[in-house]
Amino acid sequence: QVQLVESGGGLVQAGGSLRLSCAASGGSISINGMGWYRQAPGKQREYVGAITGGVTNYADSVKGRFTISRDNAKNTVYLQMNSLKPEDTGVYYCKLVGQPNWGQGTQVTVSS
Questions:
Q1: Of 1, 56, 79, 82, which one has the greatest count of Cβ atoms within 10 A?
Q2: Contact (Cβ atoms closer than 8 angstroms) between residue 15 and residue 83
Q3: How do the pLDDT tens digits run along the chain, 112 residues long?
Q4: Which residues of 48-78 are buried (b: 16+ CB within 10 A; e: fewer)?
């Protein structure tokens, strides 16, 4: 069974940076690809970006500020978040493409 563990969240001031990690077991990030999502309080979960076959894709709201990378040897995907804004606040989740399991999420809070 696929298990995903996100980490790296925290509290940061606007303009700051954070790097999130998503470690996967029971599934291959190099085969499936990995997506990042986030959910702000009172809002639906939304797509942030994904890496599939080495190709990355981003939501317009984070394009140019966020970067997804991966380490196949560690079966881990990273989300580097720069120039953070208060509207980036939320719980960030990862999910293997084509698999139903979600990680527990990691909280990101950006203060103004």
A1: 79
A2: yes
A3: 889 999 999 999 999 999 999 999 888 888 888 999 999 999 999 999 999 988 999 999 999 999 999 999 999 999 999 999 999 999 999 999 888 999 899 999 999 9
A4: bbbbbeeeeebeeebeeebbbebeeeebbbb
On the 0-12 / 13-18 / 19+ scale of CB atoms within 10 A, 18 is buried
Alpha carbon of 5 to those of 8, 84, 103: distances in Å?
10, 22, 5
Alpha carbon distance 38, 16 (integer Å): 18
Residues in the chain: 112
